[in-house]
Amino acid sequence: MPPQGGRGREPASAESILRRQAQRESAARTYARSLPIVPVRARGLTIEGADGRRYLDCLSGAGTLALGHNHPVVLEAVRKVLDSGAPLHVLDLATPVKDAFTTELFANLPPALAADARVQFCGPAGTDAVEAALTLVRAATGRDGLLAFTGAYHGMTSGALAASGGATDVRVTRLPYPQDRHCPFGVGGEEGARLAAAWTENLLDDPKGGVAPPAGMILEPVQGEGGVIPAPDAWLRRMREITTRRGIPLIADEVQTGVGRTGAFWGVDHAGVVPDVMVLSKAIGGSLPLAVIVYRAELDLWAPGAHAGTFRGNQLAMAAGTATLAYVRRNGLAERAATLGARMLTALRGLAADQPCVGEVRGRGLMIGLELIDPDTGAAAPGLAAAVRRECLDRGLIVELGGRHAAVLRLLPPLTITDEQAAAVLDRLADAVPAAVRRPH
Ligand code: PMP
User: Fold this and answer.
1) Which of 153, 228, 364 to mutate to test the pocket of ligand 1 (most atoms within 8 A of CB)?
2) pTM score above 0.90
3) Full residue range of the structural domain in which residue 423 is found
C-alpha cells in the first residue's frame, strides 16, 4: 500500500513526508539527514523509495542485515511465529522459539566458548549488551576499571559511551588500537601493532603506571564506526595473552563484526582467539532488535536482576535471528564474504590508485572503508567524503561515513550480495568519487 498522508486520503508524497519529518523529529536524528529518502519496499540489497527510485543499500541497517532486506527465510520464520499464536512478549521466560535461538547460537560460537557458555538476553540494542558485559565483569572480578581503545565505538548508554574513543572517564584506561595510516608510533604495519601491544603490557605492569587492575578489556576485532580498522591477528592474540596472564576478562564487541561480516563467522576467529565475553547484536536478530552476551560460565557470578529489562524476549527477533544464523552457516556466507570482500578491496585499491583523494582502502570481508583525504596535505577530508556520499545517493547507492573525522566511506553490503550487484556498487562508486572531486564541496 502506498504511504498515506497525515490527514488526507491521498498517498503522501516523499517530499511531504520528509518535510514533516524535518519539522517534527529531533535535531539529534542522524541517518535521516544524510539519506533523505522514504523507503517503502525492500528486498535483498535493494530499497525502493516512495518516489519510485531504487537504491543499492550498502548501509544495511548499519551492518545489521546479513541477509539483506526481507530475506525469504527471515519472513517465513517471522510468519511462522505470528501464525502460531505464540505470545510475542514474554519478558525473559523460556519459550520454544528462544530455546531454538539459543541452540543455534551456541552451535555457531567458537567451540571452546560454547563448551561451557552462558547467555544473558539483554535489552534489544548493542549498547545494552555492552552495559551487561561491563556489569558482568565488574561483578565477577570485584574491580571497577576498564581497558578500552582509541577509536572504539561501543554505544550510547553511559558505560558503553565511556568505553568509546571520544569519551573521557576516570574508570577507563585508553590504550592504542593498532592502525597503519594514523599509527601513534609513526610506523604502522606489524611493527606499529607490536609497539601498541608493548605499550599496553608495559602500562599494566608498571607499578607507577597509574592503572589499577581492571575488571576487563573491551575491543572490536575490526573497528567499524572508528573507520573500518581491522586489528592485526597477531595483535589480537597478544591482547588475549596479556589479559589471560593477568586474569583480566577479555570482552570482544562483535556487535558489528559478528555473523560472517568479516569473512569468518566471528571477527575473533581470524586470529583463533577465544574471548571470555562476546557482545552480540545487529545481525543476530535477523533485522529485528535483539542483543545478548555470551560468556564463560565461570564469570556467571552476578545476582539475579543484575542486568534486567522489560524487552528481553522479542520472539519475532529470535525467530528471525535463528533463521539468519542457520542460513549464514549452511550457505557458507562467511567464506563468501571473505572471497567477495577480498575482490572488492582489490578493485577499490585500483580506484584509489587513480584517485589521489582516496588515501587508504581498508577492510575485512564485507566490512570495507575508503578514507578520503586532501591529496595536498594528506589530511582527512570530511567535506569531500560527504560529497561522495551525496554523489553515491544521486546514483542510487546508499553508503555512510565513519572514522574519527567522518572521512571514511563505509560499505556494509549484505552477505548475500551477488557478483553482479557488487560490480554495480563498484561502478557507481567509481563514478561518484571523481564527480565529487569536480564539484565544489
Ligand atoms: N558496538 C559496536 C561495535 C557497534 O558498531 C555498535 C553500533 N554501531 C554498538 C556497539 C551499539 O549498538 P546499538 O546502536 O544497537 O546500541
Assistant:
1) 153
2) yes
3) 14-64+334-438
